[in-house]
Structures are given as structure tokens and as C-alpha cells.
Amino acid sequence: QVQLVESGGGLVQAGGSLRLSxxxxxxxxxxxxMGWFRQAPGKEREFVARISxxxxxxxxxxxxxxxxxxxxxxAKNTVYxxxxxxxxxxxxxxxxxxxxxxTLGGGIDYWGKGTLVTVSS
Length: 121
What we know:
Elements: E1 3-7, E2 10-13, E3 18-25, E4 32-39, E5 46-52, E6 58-60, E7 68-73, E8 78-83, E9 92-100, E10 110-111, E11 115-120
Parallel strand pairs: 2-11
Antiparallel strand pairs: 1-3, 3-8, 4-5, 4-9, 5-6, 7-8, 9-10, 9-11
């Protein structure tokens, strides 16, 4: 059974940092892109960042460039999202996602259940 389990969310003050983790299990993810989406209350889920499992190609949403860093540890089947300089508008549920191929644009094969990030002003 494939599972993506997020952790690392919590409450942080504006300007602070959090590191999210996504532990993947249940299959080999060598040919999968992994990444993060987020959803704020009353808003649609939006793309945040992704990393290709094989060559490590990275893409970020414009609103996180320079503040968030995505990385992965192939040996641990884990993807990370380091979030710095957090803003109140970064708050929401952050979801880990996996899709076969180099990007997440062709549709998501697996979703995690999400981890809540709250940013106080």
C-alpha cells in the first residue's frame, strides 16, 4: 500500500521557519516526481514546489521563490520542504504529492493527508 506521510507542520510567527517532511512508502519512487501543494481555507489547492526523483530537477511557484527550498533523500524515500521567512498568507494545509514522470503536471498519482501550517502575524 502506497503511503505519503507528511510531518513538520505547526504554529510559527511571521518571519519564522518550518521544515516539512514527506515519507513515501509502499513502492519504488525512482521514476516519480514528488512535491508539495497547499490549500488555505476557502481557497483552491495550489502548487508550491516539486522535485524530480531521478535528476533532481526543481520547480517552484513564484510566490515561494527565494523563501522555500525543496530537497529529497532518495535513500530514505523522503522529500523535504524548508520554509523560511513565512508569511501569514503561507498558512494552510500542505499536501505531499507524487506523480509518475518528471513533473506533477500530468496528474497526481498519490496524495498525502496533509499537515497544517499556521502563521501568526
